[in-house]
Amino acid sequence: MRISCLLPGLLLLHLALPAPASTSRELGARLEPNEMGAGGLLFETADGLRQAPTLATDVEIVVTGLIARTRVTQRFGNPTKDWVEGIYVFPLPENSAVDSLEMRVGDRVIEGRVEERARARATYRKARTDGRKASLVEQERPNLFTTSIANLGPGEEVEVILTYQEDVHYDKGRFNLRFPMVVAPRFIPGTAHVEGFSGAGWAVDTNEVPDAARITPPILDPATPLSHPVTIRVEIDAGFPLEEIESSSHPVLVRAKSANVYHVRLEAGAAPANSDFLLDWRPIIGATPGAALFRETWQGEEYVLLMVLPPEPESASRTPVSREMIIVIDTSGSMGGESIVQARKAVGYALGTLRPQDAFNVIRFDSSFHRLFETARPATARAVSEARQWVDRLEANGGTNMLPALEAALAPGRESRAIRQVIFVTDGAVGNESALFEAIQQGLGQSRLYTIGIGSVPNAYFMSKAAQFGRGTFSYIGRPDEVAEKMGDLFSKLENPVLHDLAIEWKTAGDPTAAGKTTVEAWPSRIPDVYLGEPVVVAARLPGGVAKVVLRGRRGGEDITFELPLEGGSNHVGVAKLWARRKIAALMDSLNEGESVDRVSVEVARLGVRHQLVTRWTSLVAVDVTPTAPVGVVPDTRAVPGMLPRGWNFLKIFRGANIEAAAQDQSRAADTRRSEGTGGPGTQTRPALLAASINPPVARVQIGRLPQGATPAALLVSIGGLLLGAAGIVSRASRGPRAGHDAGATIRGNVIGKGRA
Amino acid sequence: MSWQSESDPRPPSRTRAKWLVMPALALALALAGFALVLRGLWIPAKAWAAQQMIERAWSDVVAGRSEVRPWPWADTWPVARLHLPGAGSPLYVLAGASGQSLAFGPAHVSASARPGEPDNVVFAGHRDTHFATLRHLSPGAEIFVESMTGSIHYRVDEAEVVHESRVDLLERTGRSELTLITCYPFDSIVPGGPLRYVVHASAIDPHPHPPPTSTFQP
Fold first, then answer.
1. 3-class SS letters over A626-695
2. A94: closest CA among A477, A429, A464?
3. Which of A464, A495, A526 is the last residue of a domain?
4. Residues in chain B within 8 Å Cβ distance of A666
5. Are strands B195-203 and A419-426 parallel, antiparallel or unpaired?
6. Do residues A576 and A460 both lie within one domain?
7. Cβ separation of A712 and B191 shorter than 8 Å?
8. Nearest residue on chain B to A711, alpha-carbon basis
9. Which of B15, B163, B176, B197 to mutate to test the interface with A (most CBs of A within 10 A)?
10. Domain that holds residue A310
11. Could you tell me if residue A699 is inside a domain?
């Protein structure tokens, strides 16, 4: 049955790793699924699996001051003889604002536009049915996107170009940027929905992660060599001379192009897409500005992006406050290899910072969790050394059941100290982010959560959000030799008083008292706590006349105020989009605080359409105007008077022929109706046209499955019946005379018996 | 000699072995066949019986309780009552389209909108038990769904056969509609094929009716 469903020429596209390039010479070769060399697509055809076109990915990043604009070119090719559709899942930075889509077919360029998600999908589906080229970019998670491309003809190549904007992260004197390349396998907790759901996405949808199959592309066997290169070029125009530019993930070549402008590219030209690309740069000493301001006037409104570095405390009057430190270490399977080594080192570092007046505990978790001590214990030398030994023995395996461990870590003990720091060491490979965020918000209390990302592809979105909700910080350790440096940075933050209860006031020049609480809309609306070396970054929409900003906060028990004139600043396209992106992020966060989805989705979709951004509820869609799939009839199927009920006819028309072949794609139904309407009665009389119209998008990527809707009842009864029949035959044979030589083979026994009778 | 005559049971023992083996084999085959047939028949029987038990749980649901498990160890509960034309009695739709709940009734795909919500509500069912009648639905047929959040009348628009990968059919659309999914082809003996039969229906009145009258208001 299964085989009969795979009609010749039908392609089932299996989704694999997010994408990047493959060389064309290996395309089309017959392959076993586990022979896949690297990320890419597998086509299932009648004569076996073939490697599908993957795509070349080129990344160009231009950094101007605090804003980075990135252009990602995905070049899709189709080496097969069929019309296909492809869907690719790929990651982007968690704060990226995707705002443009361009589809290039040959020398034609089709601009995408942002539409409300359902409408964009409908537009795309219609184009797919009509045989037109179309591409659709959707957001699955803030850092996870899919590109779909319909009607990719035999031998054709299509380029999909995405552009996004993000603000560069600044911390402790360094600017840094990340380009994620891999969708790390995520742990999907919850009760599985359907046995039949575990399609090409490897996870089964569960009650906690209903879209699991959408966000879990298959992962290749790590033993196979990775060959899919990504090229990366970065231009940095920092606005001040730089002392150092380096990448902790890849060897890079840096070239000074002109004063303050630098070009960076990969030393190897291209890199396999198996590790995030990281770049950071540091201004020469003394060149770091205390504040930076970018402006844009967009649709008559003024938007600003403001970065302020709060003055550092003059005296490092650290009082030895006793604190409670809970260290949580992820020992799940995804932490295997180098990651667990780094994690152990990081935990070792944290243990080394404990002072006798502190209390501490260590929790490890994978599928289940274990505490080192029943409750937090004073950090005596003996307790610490016991912890060290315990941690050194930890091995990685099992699932990532983070929620119970997180809840246990946040729950204060009976004698908890006033300062409770939860250090959470993980790769964040989880899919149930929102349940975890909720747990953090509800359970935080006096605790502060510091997430430490480990491994080459941590789920940065989860960890930075978790730190945000946990009012702590997120640090990322990419390599074992970075452990000491990054942990050192983190603990210098923890040991210095934090700037909290920050409020920002916008004042007009004329009347500083009647300050503009009025119409300034600034995001984030509540400024997070600022640790040593961190800046305050705010995006705001201003009414005219705002001339001054006043920041107030508390640090170490004293009030701190500082003022900043809002003058000058450089004009920069895209500030408005960054503002909108932050507002959307705040709206999305409000979902975790119990805001209704209905209200948020309307607001987010409105912002997405207005500012042309891809969000959870808006997508980018580009549709070619001319149908390229060989149909050549009126694209609007509804306008053609149907001779048969809509949606059914193809089944009847094709009955007796290859029903499954016909039914495989509803687009063919439309085509059939078209030929009915325009070509007179009887599609059967027009085999040529029909055959042509069957060509359009038959292939489909599997990123999940519809529920399976059949029971094995009929099969069981049939097999049971056959067995009963066989039993009858055997018993008849055995009733025959005793002369059989061969008691082993029942059939022969039967024949002999018959001969005798 | 006596030894040999005593111990000369070889030809008889061989025959006896055959006498034992053949009926034993026949019996084993018969038992296995019987067991399979029984298991095969048990599936529709269970599907039918479960619906009867769920009916009682539903009356508790109507009385205002939620997550009423039809039997204590059930990991699902009725979330809606589905009236399909051509089916004698209404079907009770269970929460979560897991293989387990599908054995007992049509099930609500939890990723889709909740029954009664004016958005895309998706139910899945087995083509050879509860959803066997789907093949006879024709455009214009009316479907009625009762749930705790409201009851909606739908009218069938179209049906299509799709590949199992069309998970986009489970998504919210912003329109009040009902999507019913079952396996295809209907008469196949072997389960687990990659095709699905999908019926699309739109709400006749986009505004849900108030929930069914309850005998108990908390």
1. EECCCCCCCCCHHHCCCCCCCCCHHHHHHCCCCHHHHHCCHHHHHHHHHHHHHHCCCHHHCHHHHHHHHC
2. A464
3. A495
4. 160-162
5. unpaired
6. no
7. yes
8. B191
9. B163
10. 289-314+499-595
11. no
- CA A79 from chain center: how many Å? 28
Return the H-helix or E-strand segment holding A253.
strand A252-258
List chain A residues with CB under 8 Å of B46. none
Residues of A in contact with B40 (CB under 8 A): 712-718, 720
DSSP A154: T
**Interface mutation vs chain A, best among B48, B76, B98, most A CBs within 10 Å:** B98
What is the full DSSP assignment across A497-558?
PPEEEEEEEEEESS-STT-S-SS-EEESSSPPPB-TTPPEEEEEEE-TTEEEEEEEEEETTE
User: Nearest C-alpha of chain A: how many angstroms from B10?
Assistant: 13
Task: Answer yes or no: is A652 within a domain.
Answer: no
Q: What is the tally of structural domains in chain A?
A: 3
Angle, helices A338-352 vs A381-392, to 10°: value is 180
A581 part of a folded domain: yes
* Amino acid letter, residue A78: N
Contacts with A423 (C-beta within 8 Å, 6 or more apart), sequence order: A325, A326, A327, A328, A347, A350, A450, A452
CATH code of residue A359: 3.40.50.410
Taking an 8 Å cut-off on Cβ atoms, the answer to whether B193 and A2 are in contact is: yes
Asked whether the beta carbons of A270 and A250 are under 8 A apart, the reply is no
**Chain A, nearest residue to B117 by Cα:** A598
Q: How confident is the model at residue A688 (pLDDT cuts 50, 70, 90)?
A: very low
Residues A418 and A523 in one domain: no
A455 and A525 co-located in one domain? no
- pLDDT tens digits along A182-219: 654 444 333 333 222 222 333 334 444 444 444 444 33
Please tell me the distance from the alpha carbon of residue B74 to that of residue B94, in angstroms, as a whole number.
11
Specify the range with the lowest mean pLDDT, choosing from A60-74, A82-96, A702-716.
A702-716
Element (H, E) at A469: helix A460-469
Contact A621, A134 (CB under 8 A): yes
Q: Same domain, yes or no, for A36 and A182?
A: yes
Q: How many CB atoms lie within 10 A of CB A400?
A: 27
Q: What is the largest CA-CA distance in chain B?
A: 100
Say yes or no: A260 and A350 in one domain: no
Same domain, A460 and A523: no
Asked if omega into A412 is within 30° of 0 (cis), the reply is: no
Average pLDDT, chain B: 77
Return the HEC string of chain B. CHHHHHCCCHHHHHHHHHHHHHHHHHHHHHHHHHHHHHHHHHHHHHHHHHHHHHHHHHHHHHCCCCCCCCCCCCCCCEEEEEECCCCCCCEEEEECCCHHHHHHCCEECCCCCCCCCCCEEEEECCCCCHHHHHHHCCCCCEEEEEECCCEEEEEEEEEEEEECCCHHHHCCCCCCEEEEEEEECCCCCCCCCCEEEEEEEEECCCCCECCCCCCCCC
| A479 and A507 both lie in a single domain | no
Name the residue facing A708 among B17, B18, B183 (closest C-beta): B183
Q: Looking at the structure, tell me whether residues A295 and A275 fall in a common domain.
A: no
Which residue in this structure is represented by tokens 């959040």?
A: B149
Question: Residue B36: phi, psi to the nearest 5?
Answer: -65, -45
CATH of domain B48-203: 2.40.260.10
Does residue A309 register a pLDDT over 90? no
Is the pTM here over 0.80, yes or no? Answer: no
Q: B136 to chain A: nearest residue by CA?
A: A648
Contact assignment for B98 to A195 by CB distance below 8 Å: yes
Q: Do B33 and A724 touch (CB under 8 A)?
A: yes
pLDDT at residue A684, as a whole number? 28
Instruction: Tell me the average pLDDT across B118-144.
Output: 87
Give domain status of residue A684, yes or no: no
